[in-house]
Design a protein that fits this description.
Layout (H helix, E strand, L loop, with lengths): L11 E2 L2 H10 L1 E5 L6 H14 L5 E4 L16 E4 L10 H8 L7 E6 L11 E8 L7 E10 L2 E10 L19 H34 L3 H16 L8 H24 L1
Parallel strand pairs: 2-5, 2-6, 3-4, 4-5
Antiparallel strand pairs: 1-8, 6-7, 7-8
Length: 264
């Protein structure tokens, strides 16, 4: 990418608010008609986050000199999924692609005529004016944010958008470019790391619990608790020993009170 970096387009006009929104939400549906500047804006935004130093890589399901083969574990990347409606239609697909975008530092760009899954439509952008008909190399977009009670929108423009054309192929996206598999493997890897951490923590807690509940009775109570917890049953602690201790303490207190009264 460094050999072509100086030729990449960076011509946003009045785009500050939208770029802040995109940086925060990380998932953008690029909507509109066929040939409506969706994929172009997706790659423009992918190069923008790369230029800003927010990601290290750009990956896509269509050919581009900006993209390589996804490296595992997949993280710190802008993902351009062209014609996303073919892939991102189920809750499982949403989990695969968007569940951990912040944790993995991913930016998901979804150019698609038809809508992807509703969970991926909170932030969208659509070209509303092509000034090239007036001889001006400028595209104007409208962005919209709808999440719960939040409803916001605005406009921005991009100067000389044709500069991005050499950097992606105008072909048919027949799959996801291995991105789904790369993300699933990445999720499995980090879950394995997390499980190992949890196992180590639980072992240490158990060691401390056995030290705290010293003696045979304490260890037996701990084993009983663990068995009940795993079986989903209701756990009750045998409090007879504690009740005896408290009864003895109460008797000692009563004797001390009686002796104090006699002295008076």
């Amino acid at each position: 990418m460094t050999t072509i970096a100086e030729r990449l387009p960076r011509g946003f006009l009045l785009g500050g608010e939208f770029l802040d929104m995109f940086s925060s939400w990380r998932v953008l549906w690029l909507r509109g008609r066929f040939g409506g500047g969706k994929t172009s804006l997706a790659f423009i935004l992918a190069t923008w986050v790369w230029w800003q130093g927010l990601v290290d890589n750009i990956y896509s399901n269509i050919r581009s000199p900006l993209c390589g083969v996804p490296q595992l574990p997949l993280h710190s990347a802008a993902l351009v999924l062209d014609e996303a409606w073919q892939i991102l239609t189920s809750a499982k697909a949403v989990e695969d692609y968007a569940a951990f975008v912040r944790h993995l530092n991913l930016y998901l760009l979804l150019p698609s005529v038809y809508p992807p899954h509703p969970r991926l439509r909170f932030l969208s952008a659509q070209r509303v004016f092509d000034a090239r008909f007036c001889g001006i190399p400028l595209w104007v977009y409208r962005w919209s944010l709808g999440s719960g009670a939040v409803r916001e929108h605005g406009y921005f423009a991009f100067w000389n958008p044709a500069a991005i054309y050499p950097y992606y192929a105008q072909g048919i996206a027949g799959g996801d470019g291995g991105l789904g598999l790369a993300l699933r493997v990445t999720h499995a890897y980090y879950r394995q790391v997390s499980d190992q951490f949890q196992t180590a923590i639980e072992a240490e807690v158990q060691r401390q619990a056995e030290a705290l509940l010293h003696g045979q009775g304490g260890r037996a109570a701990l084993r009983q608790y663990e068995a009940k917890s795993r079986g989903g049953g209701k756990f009750t602690i045998d409090t007879s020993e504690a009740e005896t201790v408290f009864a003895d303490a109460a008797a000692d207190i009563a004797d001390a009170a009686d002796r104090l009264k006699r002295r008076r």
